Amino acid sequence: MATIKDISKIAGVSATTISRVLNHDDTINVSNETKRKIFEAAEMLSYTKHIDKPKKSTENVLNFGLIHWYNEYQEINDPFFISIRMGIEDECKINNINLTKIYNDEAQVEKLASNTFDGLIILGKFDKDRINSFKQYAENIVFVHSNNTKFEYDSVQADFRELTEDVIKYLLASGHKKIGFIGGREKIPGNNEKIVDYREVQFKNYMRRKGLYKPEYVKIGSYNHKDGYEMMKQLIDENKSNLPTAVFMASDSLAIGAIKAITEAGLEIPKDISVFGCNDIPTSQYTSPALSTVRIYTESMGQLSIKLLLEQINSTRQFFIRVTIPHELVIRESVSEIKGTVDSKV
0.85 cut: is pTM over it? Predict the structure, then answer.
């Protein structure tokens, strides 16, 4: 049986446009020539499922797609993206929206071509060719946590540069001068191109401006507990005679692994080394000691992406919106103040 995907191949028109034309949506702005191509292709393929049906009622359920740059296994190990996805799902339930989740594996990607979407949420980072390819599946698109879209699409982001600077300023104000950084590098699906993290970039730039940057205090791996453990163990082994007094971890998962390595080395947190995490995952408050971290409102990122999609569908806005989500330093027990060396000029 013919599908909208088959019509799209023949007519050279996106699946969303085809669906709206076949449903006699008078609000769609396409030429008569385009409409003609669609109806001719549908007729040629004996596609009659939607032809001659009345215009879709506004009371009908919208169909949104969530395209994830992770596969399901990768997502399970990254609370940051789980929280964003949960925010998306919650907002869809509130608005009676059908959500199709498409993870990054071959079996799931077929869902993209076999469905008709009113809008797409693109979660994560993709190369430019892949980004441009999404246009064929939906006219309404919002990107979440992507650094490749500029102002060509609506997007929702966290400001990792600013939050990194805020963490460093807090540590400096607490008297720390010897500050380390443990982070990770993400890879773009398909070409394995490594993406430099803004936290790493901003840490190096800010510490250099302060004249405090020490490359031996910086370790880069992947964003997981194991790498956090291994990199902290390596940092301690290589700097036994001159340890950093504080380390900013690019994620709480890294921090949890690092805490284990510090404890196994016979060191105390925060007496010997202070640890500052990022993301404020639920387990961060239950580490020993409780982890100071950065709270990023990740569920709100997901919720806002749905609100932006709905606003695209229901308005005639001619410009794109980029939303930057605020963050908050959550101070718990893993950072100490070095008495007598507090820096008020940070």
Answer: no
